[in-house]
Amino acid sequence: MPGIGQAAGEQLVGTLQTSRSGPIDGVQMTVTTPDGARIGQVDTDAQGRWEVDLPGPGQYVVTLNSDDLPDGVVLAGEDSRTVTVEEGRRQAVVIGLSDGSRDGGGGSVRAVQLLVDGIRFGLLIAMCAVGLSLIFGTTGLTNFAHGELVTIGAVVAWYINVDGGVPLVPAALIAMLVGAAVGALNELVLWRPLRRRGTGLIAALVVSIGLSLLLRYLIQLFYGGRSNPYQGVGGGRAVDYGLFRLTNADLTSIVVSVVVLVLVAVMLQRTKIGKAMRAVADNRDLAASSGIDVNRVILVVWMMGGALAALGGVLLGLSDQVQWDMGFRLLLLMFAGVTLGGLGTAYGALVGSLVVGVFVQMSTLVIPNDVKYVGGLLLLIVILIIRPQGILGSRVRVG
Fold first, then answer.
1. Cβ atoms 35, 59 nearer than 8 A
2. CA-CA distance, 271 to 280, in Å (whole number)?
3. What DSSP character marks residue 291?
């Protein structure tokens, strides 16, 4: 619009795609003010993405031209959305589309699809939660900053992949190294000195909450509020496997998660450091009296937890794109999986995370998709009432 200065940073962005059609290009998106003044009009690109620069923060109306949608794809709701954009923010806009893949073929087929989606989501939660569980088991710390390790992994991989032009696989490996380094820095600079000072667990919990806030907003400061995909990794079309459909990115996420979690299990069972981790988690004083270097074991746990969280963030970014608060939004589900499986046990975190992931996705058969995470937390409450120690946890006598 002539005469209106462009403020730096404010944008509306979005991606149009469905599991069956893949990215949808050539769809006209129009942005106006609530009183009808046009701000901008663009068509989606080959990746289904679109963006419109805004004159400043405020309310805007985004309208999709439904006549441009391909055959078989229809609107799942209204063709427009009213959004509020804050200063300096790139606001993502979601307009629901349906290609019939979710509801087609009867309830049993949809249940199978949701089961597969739940297993994929549960494996992602488990990838991130194993380190959280081991940290609690070896130090007793409930680390609220663990979600930021997930975000750091995704953001580092994005910068290396997009700005550096490095393929995603080596970018993910570098992100894991960065995650391990951040985990080691946490232990050496902050938590080990606090343990030496005899800091109580409640005080440490408060410190972890403060660290979480600090890291989260530092990430937002450097990365911004935008939501971006990786380069060279499109959404892609879903492949039909009979009763369910998966994109290549989702299948890759499942395979990588299973392989890594199996390797972690083998490491815990077969290697010397793995046995030392389990010994420290079971009884730290007894492990120390047996000649185990407890501080060294805890450092390795922090490094492994940081690397696994970073890898989980990269895999989460494949499906949900990279966002500055993605780890924080996953944090409660990680805690639910760890607590449900049994606090301090790596295998409990795996089992609990799978249960939470499947239950969250399957619950959309009876509740709206927008509140599906609430179902996972309600499951946690019910299980803890019946079995307070969790699924694989052992009873502890108090007093």
1. no
2. 14
3. T
